[in-house]
UniProtKB/TrEMBL annotation:
GO MF annotations in UniProt: oxidoreductase activity, acting on the aldehyde or oxo group of donors, iron-sulfur protein as acceptor
SUPFAM superfamilies found in the cross-reference section: Pyruvate-ferredoxin oxidoreductase, PFOR, domain III (SSF53323)
Signal peptide residues on this chain, from the entry's feature table: none
Domain of life: Bacteria
Protein name: Pyruvate ferredoxin oxidoreductase gamma subunit
Species of origin: Oceanotoga teriensis
NCBIfam families, sorted: PorC_KorC
């Protein structure tokens, strides 16, 4: 019997934090006692170019090293990518499409043609309010945790605190924790 992993596909633009969010999720999963992988895929390697990142999380060692073709959840960090059919490729309607946007889930459905579960969050706005930078990766992780519970929120918070406290002030650490909580609390869901 083939092993089943929980698979995440992130879509964003280089410099928006999709790769960092993917790495953070993988590290939080490891800290929670799970197995995980994280890796990016770049097109043109320049700031602002479309890119993808991938996660696999499991209770057993992850042995697959290819891109995620049939994700359990897709996270879109930049809503200008929604017209790309690759965004929903392989995503079953019972799984979530999560989008950083001020648009409603119904508007996202019209743009993408995806008729499954859609969740939206104003991630960039929250990041600007809390962190004072338009990098919504911690917000998006909070939303992903709300929808999947694949990693305990406490593990993610511990990872944010440990990673950021070495580089940033306590005020920045606290701002990222608030952004994480708001991503969890403020998500709009259609399904």
């Amino acid at each position: 019997m083939p092993e089943k992993y929980f698979e995440v596909r992130w879509h964003g633009r280089a410099g928006q934090g999709a790769k960092s969010a993917s790495q953070f999720l993988a590290e939080a999963a490891l800290d929670a006692g799970k197995y995980s992988t994280s890796f990016p895929e770049y097109g043109a390697e320049r700031s602002g170019a479309p890119m993808k990142a991938f996660n696999r999380i499991s209770e057993v060692p992850v042995r697959v090293r290819s891109n995620v073709e049939f994700p359990d959840i897709v996270v879109v960090i930049d809503d200008t990518l929604l017209g790309n059919p690759d965004i929903t490729s392989g995503l079953a309607e019972e799984n979530y499409l999560v989008v950083n946007t001020i648009k409603s889930p119904e508007e996202v459905s019209k743009i993408t043609g995806f008729n499954g579960k859609i969740a939206t969050i104003a991630g960039t706005d929250i990041a600007l309010e809390e962190i004072k930078r338009g990098i919504p990766n911690t917000v998006m992780i909070g939303t992903l945790i709300k929808l999947t519970d694949i990693v305990p929120m406490d593990s993610v918070k511990q990872k944010v605190t440990a990673a950021f406290s070495h580089k940033f002030s306590q005020a920045i650490v606290d701002a990222n924790l608030r952004a994480l909580d708001r991503g969890f609390a403020e998500v709009n869901i259609n399904g």
